[in-house]
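DM from R.C. (forwarded with permission)

"hey, sorry to bug you on a friday — could you get me a structure for this? deadline for the figure draft is monday and I only need the backbone to look sensible"
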Amino acid sequence: MTLPVGILLSLACAFVANLGFFYKYRGANSVARVQVRRPWRSARALYSSRWFALGMGIACVSWGLHVAALALAPMSVVQVALAAGVVLIAVMAERLFGFAVGVRQWIGLWLTAAALVTLGLTVPAMHGAHSHFSQAAMIAFEAGLFGVGGLLIMGPRMGGRREHHGVMLGAAAGVLFGVSDTAIKALTGIAGAHGALALALSPWLAVAVAASILAFFASARGLQDGEAVPVIAVTGTAANIAGIAGGILVFGDPMAASPAGVVLQSVAFVLVVVASALMPAPVRAAGLAGAGGAGAGAQA
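My reply, with the result:
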């Protein structure tokens, strides 16, 4: 019974998370640009916007739903259920926030959703929460993701094309959210086996907090540098892929049980790459163009 509940919580999390991202986009583009060298000043500026503060409040609700889902279902299953949120991004953008989503973005979003669902369908049936993990695998996986996230954050400073800065930072935020999600999944197992005190003393709590803080700033700056739909979609996709990989590599979630399943999973990853290439096309929000322009010109 816990698995269906975990999936339902994941679907609710997907909708709520997207809602929070759109409000954060509105707020982030009405204040001065985020500067990593001035984290406190940047954070105060962001929270001075009621839209950004509202978006963060909604994000906290989404985080609670995500933690509950991770406690009830295997990590890879939760992340695949969250894939529904990728398609919801375009629907919410057009119907709720007045964005004009281009054909390329629709194709990219559908390819991403198809890829993530394919990954889910090729995963063998699982029972239980799958919270047990190897310390060595956990350390290697988290360190690797931190490295990838760092490279993506540095991408704009290493000659990345300006129009791709927002997407690169969104991908960095997604990877770092994946670091946090993996650590949180481990913490749910630790709490269940050893109690709340062991959770509070676990080094993975510090990892989850550090990754969340870095992801917060990368996401906010990405929303300022890029368009809402591509940045939000890439952030969610990167977090989903990191979560699925974490479920398999760290927590032992089973991979495809047949050669055909392995081929389908490989195709799914290729689809994600193609979809990511399609996403950075120009997308404008009719109702937020003025706010985005104001935010782009402000400096911290």
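R.C.: lifesaver. Confidence is low (pLDDT under 50) at residues 282-300.
me: no worries. The first strand starts at residue 99 and ends at 100.
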